[in-house]
Amino acid sequence: MSATLGKPSAIILGGLNTCSRALAAYLVPLESEPLVSHLRIVDKYSVYPPTTYLGPDFPKVLEKPNVEYRQANLTLPEIVSQVFDQPEGQAPYTYVFDITGEPRHDRPDQVQVTHTFQIGRLVAQEAARRSVKAYVRLTHAFYVYSEKGPHTEKQDFKPDGLRGIWWHETLRSIAAIPDLPVVILTDALVYGPYITFGYIPTFLCAAAVYGYIKQPLKAIHSPGTYPVHTVHIDDVVAAAWACAEWIAKVGRQEANTLAGESINFHNDKSVLKEVEGIVPPEQKIVAPVFNIVDDCDTSFVGGLRTMCALFGTTVEFHGRLTDVLAKFRLDDVVEDINEEHVSGWTKMLQSSNPPIQSTPLTPYVDKTALEKRVVALDNSKIKGILGLKLRRPNFDEQSLGEAVDKWKAEKVWPVFDQL
Fold first, then answer.
1. Is residue 359 a part of any domain in this protein?
2. Could you tell me if 240 and 258 lie in one domain?
3. What InterPro entries does the record point to (predicted)?
4. Domain limits at 30?
5. Do 170 and 244 fall within a single domain?
6. Are residues 91 and 73 located together in one domain of the fold?
7. What does the pLDDT profile of the chain (419 residues) look like in tens digits?
8. What is the CATH number of the domain that holds 242?
9. Does a structural domain hold residue 2?
10. Residue 26, number of CB atoms within 10 A of its CB
11. Residue 203 shares a structural domain with residue 99
């Protein structure tokens, strides 16, 4: 009891397939004192039995006496209200970490509206009604960035596709709630132990395949020097906690003064009639916004080279003719690449000691993974205002190797003497 006395209570909403597991382990560590008195994690997935990848540490976190997992449908207002009801004998939740939203780019418009926008709006409204002290919304870099970065939080970019539009619309909806002590935290490309979402795990598996077959990985974008900035999951969760602690002390008004940015309308105005809750385009929306990104200024080619070096191989680029052809028949290029990647990965799994029957990891790439996509964020603001010190400032072989070693120990990554 003394370890949690006087500490805030927290609720994590969504993100079990992205960042919630790591955040839970940060708030309630396995080997040290918790940062919170009570933690509830809520998502649509089952954990007993698991219906999404959990990794080996998260089930141990759930065994802690001050941690609770609740499977719930957050599209329903009555369910959202219920999950905010604290357990008997516990104080009301003071910190909310909103990691809801559909992260996949291939989901249709209505799925993004329902599972990103509407859920985000519902949970934020309920948090405001409960007078929470901090509300941290984690969002991803789903924008069309210029190569001439890194970009500060003040710069306004067009959302990337339907996913980007509705993730951005969710930010406007949440930030428009005047009494909500919200902080928006935008991450770069996330990697680290037990992180299976996004592009980095996919390309890491692909690099391992080329190391296994002792051939260079060939990229279709030449020269591939555009930025694809990265961030370790350790720094994402530390930043989320720092944001919560900060706004709980200063409040929304002062937070807006110190770190507020305009969140402009970037949608088709026809949605105003079609979707309930859209904030009018002319309404000025301001909320504190921070980027979380490492110091590495990772480029596409630099990131690939780092991953390939871990497995003893290199990166080469296809010639200009292949680049031109890829623009016209990228579907064929993707099919050829996946045939090589997946067959090589399958051989690795079968030849592993011991053989691996099931893994959440795959080198399978879809077309969007091969399209040129820039991520270029500046981290000076979160360092300056919150005093955040990065734990993992570099995207390097050591950090990647630690993640791979944990998967090997879990027996979901192939093990060979030479790798």
1. yes
2. yes
3. NAD(P)-bd_dom_sf
4. 10-192+231-294+376-393
5. yes
6. yes
7. 456 668 999 999 999 999 999 999 999 999 999 999 999 999 999 999 999 999 999 999 999 999 999 999 999 999 999 999 999 888 899 999 999 999 998 888 899 999 999 999 999 999 999 999 999 999 999 999 999 889 999 999 999 999 999 999 999 999 999 889 999 999 999 999 999 999 999 999 999 999 999 999 987 766 678 999 999 999 999 999 999 999 999 999 999 999 999 999 999 988 888 899 999 999 999 999 999 999 999 999 999 999 999 999 999 876 554 555 555 566 777 788 888 899 999 999 999 999 999 999 999 988 887 788 899 999 999 999 999 999 999 999 999 999 999 999 999 999 986 54
8. 3.40.50.720
9. no
10. 19
11. no
- Are residues 321 and 287 both part of a single domain? no
For residues 265 and 330, state if they share a domain: no
In a domain, 3, yes or no: no
Considering the domain boundaries, does residue 416 fall inside one? Answer: no
- Residue 186 shares a structural domain with residue 318: no
> For the chain, how many structural domains are there in total?
2
